[in-house]
Amino acid sequence: MFIQTLPLADENKMQFLPGRQVMPAGSISFDDDKIAREKSPLAARLFDIPGVSGVELGEDQVTITKKPLDEKGALWIQLKPMVLAAIMDHYMTGMPVINGPVENDDDGNYSPEELLLVNSIKELVEERIRPQLLDDGGDVAFKSYDPSDATIVLAMDSSGLSTPAFGTQIKIENTLKHFVPEISRVRFERMEEETEASEEDRPGLRTADAQTIRVLLETRINPAIAAHGGYITLIDIQEEIAYVEMAGGCQGCGMADATLKQGVEVEIKSAVPAIERVLDVTDHAGGTNPYYSG
């Protein structure tokens, strides 16, 4: 999960863009933590962070308001990692953003031209993309199309995939844009029934060290390699070894080993001194992933 941050004109506010749908439409703001806990599991998790005074949930963004410094508020350098971790933790649980039913877009909301485009996308998802995901243990479904910015929203179940969800999402987005050039962006949300069962066999992912590494990857490492179309995911921690997988432009790249040893491993060891080695388990050559082969 690659979360971008955007400072705002108000120095006490910052936007967090998780790269997937937050609200199906519109936005909702909370400045009362009691109301937030009743209505939104995500907002409740964010209000657990000391110093957060307001939460706004938009279609693809989360805006956090913090207490001002003159009210003993924290600095963003202190709050940002905790907000990133809270957002990632929420999406890992598979819980809804808002309690209660969420209505999907109705085909009647589209113009005739937009409806033709939507039907083409639905057909592409059902006949070309979904069968491949089902074969690999996942699932995907069309949710909505926003003609104002040509954005597609797909619901995706990645709990049973044999490869990291991010890499699969890149392939799906590239496929949709190839066959439907009108699309400018694809957002992914979790299917309601999706769980994190895949992590039950990897308790190392539920440790504080794993969370530190995830935040490091999202805030420092992945933004640095995003220009090359690459992305790195933490797969597991076992004893003193962190297992990572490269996707996108990093998979099969001749500089992958140098990127790992000279950059990623150094950063991870510095952030988590308990880690002694960082191993790349990427299937660079298209063979069997060595980490899972045993």
Looking at this protein, list some descriptive labels.
alpha+beta, globular, GMP Synthetase, Chain A, domain 3, about 20% strand, Ribosomal Protein S8, Chain: A, domain 1, 8 helices, about 290 residues
Protein model, in words:
With 294 residues, this protein is an alpha+beta fold. It has three domains: 90 residues, Scaffold protein Nfu/NifU, N-terminal domain (Ribosomal Protein S8, Chain: A, domain 1, 2-Layer Sandwich), CATH 3.30.1370.70; 92 residues, Fe-S cluster assembly (FSCA) (GMP Synthetase, Chain A, domain 3); 92 residues, Fe-S cluster assembly (FSCA) (GMP Synthetase, Chain A, domain 3), CATH 3.30.300.130. Helices cover 37% and strands 22% of the residues. It is built from eight helices and eleven strands. The strands form three sheets. It has a five-stranded antiparallel β-sheet. A three-stranded mixed β-sheet has the order 6-7-8, with helices on one face. Strand 1 and strand 2 form a beta hairpin. Helix 1 packs antiparallel against helix 2, helix 4 runs antiparallel to helix 5 and helix 6 crosses helix 7. It is globular, with a radius of gyration of 20 Å. The C terminus is likely disordered.
Q: Could you give a short description of this structure?
A:
The chain has 294 residues and is an alpha+beta fold. The chain has helices spanning 33-39, 41-47, 76-93, 112-135, 165-179, 208-225, 256-271, 290-293; strands at residues 4-7, 13-17, 28-30, 52-57, 62-66, 139-146, 151-157, 185-190, 230-238, 241-248, 277-280. Helices cover 37% and strands 22% of the residues.
